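Data deposition worksheet. Section B asks for the primary sequence of the deposited chain exactly as it was used as input, without tags or linkers unless they were present during the calculation. Section C holds the resulting structure in token form. Section D is free text for depositor observations; keep each observation to a single sentence. Incomplete worksheets are returned to the depositor.
Section A, Depositor: J.P.
Section B:
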Amino acid sequence: MNPKAKRTLTWMAVGAATWSCESPQQRLETDYFRDVTATHVPYDPEAHILEVAFADVDGDGDLDVIAALEADENRLYLNDGSGKLTWKKDIFKAAKHDSEHVRVADFDGDGQLDVVFVAEDDQTHEYYLGNGDGSFRDVSDRLPGMSEGNGLDVGDVNGDGLPDIVVGNSGAAGQNFLWINDPARPGFFIDRTLESLPQVNDATQSIKLADLNADGHLDMVVANEVPPNRLLLNDGKGLFTELAEYLELPEPLETREALVFDVDGDDDPDIVFANITSNAGEWDKNPRACVLINGGQARFRDETAQRMPAYEFSTYSAREMDFDHDGHLDLLLSAVAVPGFKEEQLRAYRNNGKGHFSDVTAEVVPQSVVGRNWNITIGDLNGDGITDAFVGGWASQGRLLLGKSRKQ
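Section C:
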């Protein structure tokens, strides 16, 4: 997933544009977000934070941050309740794996949140059961297999009330995995890949579980590095069948993330694919986010041209978020300049309520939020009832943006 040949790139300090006439406060704050990175996030400007998950793992009532890192130990940042994060060390394995994704769920049914990571290059996935006090015990040996993992999601796919795991894989043996939580031994998993998933090497980068056809079962959107992306419908027992004709894809995409949410306000789920032109190589495919509108019963039409402005930056991550508090989900897009793999500002696109997006980056995103932006995770970290955003990066400082109400 990552441009390994670029490891020698060094982080360039952001906010060093001394020519700007903007005040430091203007650079750090807009009407929508306040960048509190300097005071709230441990300093590590060369970290490769590829994904984070928010979860209250120590039982104090606020959301903590669990980070999956490339070429470093995975991390737990404890929240003091105001959004200020402290790195609690020696929680996960003291090994520098190539972790790409992280998910949190109560896998063993004991009421405590557990954590699963998947890794790419070194193919070392990790699985931890939570103790409820911010500590974990390593049970990685319970995972049915290892792989070149680049996608991950969790959810109850067979209707037994237990969270299951889907892993998106790439590489020579890129068959995706489906691991069903064992009802006889919750927290252990049964490999149902052969029986329940299409047998295909997809070079998957993202997997999203969501009920796409309103039948009460979690279906699957598979976003791939090598086209095409795929739509799989669930029979309710965890058997997934591809319906390629339901997913209109008029041009080949190199997709890095799939989002599923109601784009056009008609109360059914639509799909947005976040794309790159190439993985830090030359210009190749169109990187503009692809917007697919659900016409009913999970039949998706490509309406990108009329709904999403054209742009040329590559997007390794995206997140839906109502940053202007108007009741419609907008988009935050990570941005990296490719060719060149250069730092860019995080991008914001406003939804007009009918699924048409406009670039409002200058209005919404603080000027300080520049980097090789990667993951975007949202949630209320400071307990004020307003959604915040943590932005990970590749060889870039992880950043925390506290959300603001329009009245602030």
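Section D:
Residues 1-21 have pLDDT under 50 and may be disordered.
The two ends are 39 Å apart (CA to CA).
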